[in-house]
Amino acid sequence: MRKPTQELARHGYEVTVIDVDKSGRLSLRALADAIRPDTALVSVMWANNGDRRDFPIEEIAEIARDKGVPLHTDAVQVAGKIPINLREVSLQFLSISGHKLHAPKGVGALYVNRRSRFHPLMLGGSHENNRRAGTENAASIVGLGKAAEIALAKLSEEQTRVRTLRDRFEKALIEKFQARA
Ligand SMILES: *Cc1c(COP(=O)(O)O)cnc(C)c1O
Fold it and tell me: How far, rounded to the nearest angstrom, does the alpha carbon of residue 22 sit from its chain's CA centroid?
């Protein structure tokens, strides 16, 4: 988000960046305090791609909704890893990237809530209900659909597998350090 917000700033928009604390946590108070009456959008990663720490998206969504500001979330790191239920979290925009869940490269998706104001980035043809000009890459889109289907079917199995790997790694590290002590 750094580059797109810098570009917005160049066009005269005011951008407020809220840093996380030392342990990677976002202060909800700082977020609430930063939202002004003329704030157009809040954008937050659902999970960070460095440490994959999840942000409390439900609470963030609640703050944005209370203030009447649309919320975008970058869900690239969580898609296919945890359940995403858009009936349970009230947000307006959500983006995912295909290749992070084993779909082909070069395809992703932007969810746009039906009631959200939306101005397309790419203008031209009327593709995708005027939301993104350009002929769709149908093969990749089908690939993303299939990848999402497989990821959803294997979600809990995959969570167990990764948890086992993490626990084994953690145990090995602790044993190594204890052996040295
Ligand atoms: C990988 C990643 C992106 C970028 O997606 P690409 O399709 O690879 O450009 C954006 N946000 C997060 C959190 C990511 O992990």
Answer: 21
